[in-house]
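Tokens as discussed.
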């Protein structure tokens, strides 16, 4: 096979499907292909609710075949190599194809080996991750009998950066329902300097942290897990601090190990695994070669066009952008990519569409409560004008919970994935 396509899209995730659907709505004549071996597509935004026992896992799955837009060809193979100088993709079955424009929407992969001990820990009955198996998370929460309930995340970029704290808020309420909250220390250990990057939402979350009696540890970067002894080792990363400071008024039994590590025991552990771009992207000329974004796709942050090859665009989690990796971000990125593709095919120039970094984090703060955090580049609040007229989305609201649990899944399957929004 050596077919040539107007547009080749790597990945049948949210970014790939939305881009194809919007493209073909605007120009049904475009010869478009989506390359992805996955038989199933998951609505991962609901996995927080699955992990808290309030959403059905099977309802988050659809066959990929049911989502491929009319007019697009689907090749169920994996891309092994991009040869941009030849506008060529090599597939894992040895075949290749040509493209006029390429869209990279591969998503990201879990880098288990970046955190020593993680693989072993994930096999334990008291360790879980909504990113991997939210149904196991619910089992872990139900079986928890008290002690240190530790929630943490890596220093690498991760998709849905608010997810590790969302499940924590729900877990804290679940512990109250099962009667173990009074003998539990709920701990949130984050490599970050604050609970959330946008101050107006951070203020609300800090009030929730205090109200719920959660122990917040900032500048805590996990470096290894001792699964046999139920402990996580952290490196304290506060700028200007050479050593570690442990205060024991929280009663969580931390210990300083050596000069630069903190050992924290846990009775249950929820964590986000380290994440990275797929290997064939990391090793390609499309990725940043150095610096903090090394390995992630290098694009213009406003046009999403590759800075190296003008006929290549990136969308979604694989791209290095100074904003959160979410489905809401993809919804705003897709029209910009589509506009760029259509203009490029017409005259090899871009249109005027710009992506300003919009992302959204529906921060579930309890059963029946949610804060809707919307923002753009530079951590500037960017809340929906209509919603903001009706609701104060910086507060915990039942209406936002209804949006999260019922409206957003419906909009995802019936509007977003069909290119209608």
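Sequence:
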């Amino acid at each position: 096979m050596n077919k040539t396509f107007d547009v080749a899209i790597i990945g049948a995730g949210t970014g790939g499907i939305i881009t194809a659907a919007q493209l073909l709505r605007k120009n049904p004549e475009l010869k478009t292909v989506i390359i992805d071996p996955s038989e199933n597509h998951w609505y991962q935004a609901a996995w927080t609710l699955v992990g808290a026992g309030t959403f059905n896992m099977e309802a988050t799955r659809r066959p990929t075949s049911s989502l491929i837009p009319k007019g697009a060809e689907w090749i169920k193979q994996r891309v092994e190599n991009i040869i941009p100088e030849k506008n060529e993709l090599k597939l894992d079955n040895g075949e290749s194809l040509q493209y006029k424009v390429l869209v990279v929407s591969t998503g990201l992969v879990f880098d288990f080996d970046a955190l020593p001990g993680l693989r072993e820990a994930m096999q334990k009955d008291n360790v879980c991750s909504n990113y991997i198996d939210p149904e196991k998370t619910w089992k872990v929460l139900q079986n928890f009998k008290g002690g240190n309930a530790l929630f943490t995340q890596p220093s690498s970029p991760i998709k849905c950066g608010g997810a590790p704290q969302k499940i924590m808020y729900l877990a804290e309420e679940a512990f109250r329902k099962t009667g173990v909250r009074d003998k539990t220390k709920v701990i949130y250990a984050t490599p970050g300097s604050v609970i959330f990057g946008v101050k107006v939402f951070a203020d609300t979350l800090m009030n929730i942290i205090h109200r719920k009696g959660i122990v917040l540890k900032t500048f805590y970067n996990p470096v290894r897990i001792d699964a046999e002894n139920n402990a996580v080792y952290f490196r304290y990363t506060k700028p200007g601090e050479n050593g570690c400071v442990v205060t024991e008024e929280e009663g969580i039994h931390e210990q300083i190990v050596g000069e630069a590590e903190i050992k924290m025991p846990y009775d249950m552990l929820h964590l986000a695994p380290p994440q990275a771009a797929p290997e064939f992207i990391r090793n390609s000329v499309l990725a940043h070669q150095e610096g903090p974004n090394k390995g992630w796709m290098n694009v213009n942050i406003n046009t999403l066009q590759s800075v190296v090859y003008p006929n290549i665009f990136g969308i979604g989690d694989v791209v290095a952008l100074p904003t959160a990796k979410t489905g809401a971000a993809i919804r705003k990125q897709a029209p910009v990519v589509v506009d760029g593709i259509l203009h490029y095919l017409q005259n090899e120039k871009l249109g005027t569409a710009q992506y300003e970094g919009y992302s959204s984090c529906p921060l579930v703060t309890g059963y029946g409560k949610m804060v809707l955090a919307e923002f753009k580049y530079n951590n500037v609040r960017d809340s929906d004008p209509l919603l903001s007229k009706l609701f104060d989305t910086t507060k915990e609201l039942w209406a936002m919970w209804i949006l999260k649990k019922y409206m957003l899944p419906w909009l995802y399957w019936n509007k977003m994935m069909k290119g209608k929004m």
